[in-house]
Amino acid sequence: MAGGAIKYxxxxxxxxxxxxxxxxxxxSLFEHESISTTWPKAxxxxxxxxxxxxxxxxxxxxxxxxxxxxxxKPVELMPxxxxxxxxxxxxxxxxxxxxxxxxxxxxxxxxxxxxxxxxGPRDMRFAMTAKTLVRERATEAGVRDLTAKNxxxxxxxxxxxxxxxxxxxxxxxxxxxxxxRRLRGALKRRVYPVLNKDTGRxxxxx
Length: 206
Known about the structure:
By secondary structure, this protein is of the alpha+beta class. Helix content is 56%, strand content 12%. The chain has a three-stranded antiparallel beta sheet, with helices on one face. Strand 4 (193-196) and strand 5 (201-204) form a beta hairpin. Helix 1 (15-32) crosses helix 2, helix 2 packs antiparallel against helix 3 (61-70) and helix 5 (124-137) packs antiparallel against helix 6 (145-155). It starts with 14 loop residues before the first helix and ends with a strand.
């Protein structure tokens, strides 16, 4: 109806093409658990992905029939949805996916985003929180209140969340120590030009 509220984004496509696009996006999402696309496509695919996980939690024959009609790879993804993902999100009341804005991926500078399944192996916020925790624990100020809130968010519904976070932190601490050693070694080397009195030319001593 003219002047009415838009209930969904048309994405510049007719209905059948739009549905095919969204089905392809959510199939890739459930296969890889993280995809990059434009912001409008990510937001629309997020709605469909949330519905699919809700169907997985119901675990009825009717829910399986609906999910099978959406996936382009039902043989591979139906068992994952109704077993692994169902168990992962069984106690989570909602918010199974996350959309994160990123720099434009294409030359036309269209707004881009990452669409991901939360609490999975490719959860970007979980990884970013672990890196922040490593950095802040090494300072005198310690962990900030904002970081503490983020820790609660990323571990609250994640099975074994606190243990997984600490394991990631320990792994990252080793990486940080290696980077610091390489940096100290680079600072010790002379990287500025030095005048050779015999030749009258500048050279770099390392």
